[in-house]
Design a protein that fits this description.
338 residues, alpha/beta, 8% strand, globular
């Protein structure tokens, strides 16, 4: 009889303590923060506003605009920003951030300044000095990038970080009427951009993806017949060597989408996995018949946790009855004569 009590008690405990299936709430919005310099803010794509020259044609804005009901974009990119300036931009990041994009490093080298002083057919002393400074800054850039990306990952520990590089501006062209620089300077510019891209690629780590934009831009450098990069006509506006609207759309946006998917695809990847059904989940009880309505239903369904409570209560009554019976049943007395 003792074994019956133990078994009944175990069943009652299981009924009362069995947890309900916990299901995480679905994610409805991609929390996206864009960081970086003028290539990220969209300078050169048109429609720029504010001191940071943020364009409606920037790749981050275009990606978010493809599904405005799905993406919540915080655009912190700013024209002229360096790796040090990103420290002020990452204030927009937190542990709820889902996606971060970054394009940074070009302004650390001051490449546009070199373009301004190197225009001509042969390098001048001022041009040589500008190129020498770029070499020195290239040597310092890896440490700056490492510290910056560590700060980004610390501020947004759950986010996917996509690092978009830079297109090769000249692509080794022999002549270039749109940016009249000496061939040696143009080659140096391509080499410097390649070095920056290699440094950005080196930051790839779990949760950090390098996105190569040189491939979609191939054949569309500033010296090409179909350029997606602005030439010297943009010097006064500071847009020289920046992507045009076409460069942002067919170059940067295409590369970003290939790397992280469309907004809908990215959102689908954020959804929590479905909770497995309990192995001993009881079948849902049918709705009790409402006799007042002629047996046509109308009663409240009893399902899930309510069923467990009913089962537990019933077993508790059975256990109590067994104990009561054990206590009150008549005892048989046998008289043994000597």
């Amino acid at each position: 009889m003792k074994s019956i009590y133990v078994a009944a008690a175990a069943v009652v405990a299981a009924a009362f303590l069995a947890p309900g299936a916990a299901t995480a709430a679905p994610v409805s919005t991609v929390d996206y923060v864009a960081l970086g310099d003028s290539y990220a803010s969209g300078l050169g794509a048109g429609g720029e506003t504010g001191t940071c020259k943020v364009s409606t044609g920037a790749y981050a804005t275009l990606w978010a605009a493809a599904a405005p009901d799905v993406v919540s974009l915080t655009q912190k990119s700013c024209a002229g920003a360096t790796t040090a300036d990103v420290a002020t931009q990452i204030g927009a990041l937190n542990d709820k951030t889902d996606l971060v994009t970054v394009t940074i490093g070009g302004n650390d080298l001051a490449l546009l300044s070199a373009v301004r002083v190197c225009t001509g057919t042969t390098p001048t002393p001022a041009c040589e000095e500008a190129l020498s400074k770029i070499r020195d800054r290239l040597a310092e850039l890896p440490g700056r990038l490492a510290g910056m990306f560590q700060a980004v990952k610390t501020a947004a520990p759950k986010a996917k970080v996509a690092v978009l590089g830079y297109p090769l501006p000249f692509e080794g062209a022999e002549t270039c009427s749109r940016v009249p620089l000496p061939k040696a300077v143009r080659d140096f510019g391509d080499l410097a951009v390649t070095s920056v891209n290699d440094m950005l690629r080196a930051q790839a780590a779990p949760g950090v993806t390098y996105v190569d934009v040189t491939r979609p831009f191939a054949g569309h450098g500033v010296c090409s017949a179909t350029p997606w990069i602005i030439g010297v006509e943009g010097l006064s506006a500071g847009t020289t060597l920046h992507p045009s609207a076409q460069g942002q759309t067919q170059g940067y946006l295409a590369a970003l989408t290939a790397a992280v998917g469309t907004p809908q695809e990215f959102l689908a990847g954020l959804q929590p996995p479905a909770s497995p059904s309990p192995s001993a989940s009881p079948a849902a009880s049918p709705s009790p018949t409402n006799l007042a309505n002629g047996g046509n239903g109308g009663g409240l369904p009893v399902t899930g946790v309510n069923v467990w409570w009913l089962v537990g209560a019933g077993l508790a009554l059975l256990l109590a009855g067994a104990i009561l019976y054990r206590t009150l049943r008549p005892r048989r007395i046998e008289v043994v004569s000597g």
